[in-house]
Specification:
The complex is a heterodimer. By secondary structure, chain A is mainly alpha-helical. Chain A has 13 helices and no strands. In chain A, α4 packs antiparallel against α6, α8 runs parallel beside α10 and α11 packs across α12. Chain B is an alpha/beta fold. The two termini of chain B are 24 Å apart. The longest helix of chain B has 14 residues. Chain B has one domain: SCP2 sterol-binding domain (Nonspecific Lipid-transfer Protein, Chain A), CATH 3.30.1050.10. The chains are: A mainly alpha, B alpha/beta. The interface between A and B is medium-sized, with 38 and 28 residues.
Chain lengths: 362, 154
Amino acid sequence: MSAYSPVVEEGLERMLAMVRGDFDLSWMDSNPTGWGHRVQPGASGLGLRDVDTGAYGVVPEYGSSHGSMAPRGCFVPADTPSLGMYDLNEKATVWSDNAAMLYDEAVTRQWNSVTDVPWHKLQKLPDDIEKAVCQMCTNFTEVEFVAGDMPAKWLCHINHDFHEVKLFLATQIMDEARHMDVFRKRALANGGGLLMASPGNEALLAAILQAPNYTTASALMHIFGEGFILTLFRAGEFLAPTEVEKTIFRLCMQDEARHVAYGVKHLQYFVARHPEMMEEIHHILGLGEEAIFRLTLEPQTLEPRAILAGKGVENIQLGMTRLAFLYNKQITEYLQRLKIAGIDRLPRMKIPAELPALGPEV
Amino acid sequence: MSSAVCFPSVDWFERLANAMRKEVERFQELGTTDCTMVVKVDLGALGTRIYEIGFEGFEITEIRELSSLEQAKASHFVVEGSLEAWREMIENIRRNGAPDLEHTLNYLTLPDVPLRVSGPDQLEIDAFYRYNETIQRFFNGAAGIATRYERVAI
């Protein structure tokens, strides 16, 4: 009786045959139409768009039915088993025309929290300012990785023929890992620490993670959530007490804008092909709007920025007034991004388009 | 006789582009940039001056003066403000070698005063956020440019 299974025995026999010179080599001629491909690197290197040309650049409306991880454009043997997990097979459900470009951009624009932040410029700050910075960083540490968990949840559903989207989403997961890491690092780096979590934020995070399909999850996260956070990153840079926070927020801002760019173009692509899904998209945006407005009830979310804007807890009221414009900017940009995607949200928005004046101009 | 270059002018932006070329490795570290930035400088009674600067990969591909915004490439964002606001930013960079906390592009544009970012649509405006570190470093090149500010009529 053999010590090995039939598969291993067969493999051993095959290896012995090869040692005797019995090779197959049929793979060498398996894909004649895909052979002889030439590429031309661009001025800044060889990008995804430079290699995915000709037949390799043709993205099918429906991904291959073999259900495997075989790369688009190769010959797939008939006995290739399906992995049984790829059910996002329609291009429109994940596609964005800028995905390949954003992937190339993302891989060249990676940074790291170890050496790209001038940590040596940290300085002792007044207690109220350090606490405000640490609370803001606690919030960002808490929320940022939802934009890693959400794509991770859907990646193993996306057909491999849409590799541009999968690759871009993989860069987003790395971006969010960096954000979670850098905000935690900042909270712990200057004599302070993490402060209070935000139950209100969890409601929004749950809505993103529990969205019924990829596109509604993307609309809520990429456009609504990350669009709002993008403005908060800009505000973080604006309010930063040292060059350290300034750098962190500028670098994070860039990443976030890439994610928003994917989300807008995906929604645009999807809505043009599935107008019947408009109601579902409006519904989830409404959930997000109400969830984010509830955050105004949480002192740990708003007050730290007001302290930074007032340059101290004694001027927190003044700081609140100074920050009123941020909300209006968030809403304006949100509505404009949805407009590009083909959605007129203003008449259906569940929160005010503008905040009333919060106090005298200062 | 001073060798200072006038702001705003094509020459002045060419000097920034040259500074960028000289330290291309530092820009490569930041990654590729693909956008068109339009700089609009309000000269008061003397009108406005408009410049288009094209970023592609790790290079500046084009710098030109426009007679109106309509001449700009379809895809662009605009950073605009008074000559005084631009002057303060440039002089701050020149004094410190880089902007202090209150003179970064993001700081100056977030509240829409003294500088403001606009564009034909929101995704174009978002490009300013997406490439902000590169654009900031581009303007940081002003630290090495002797600059004069003349209100030259168009």
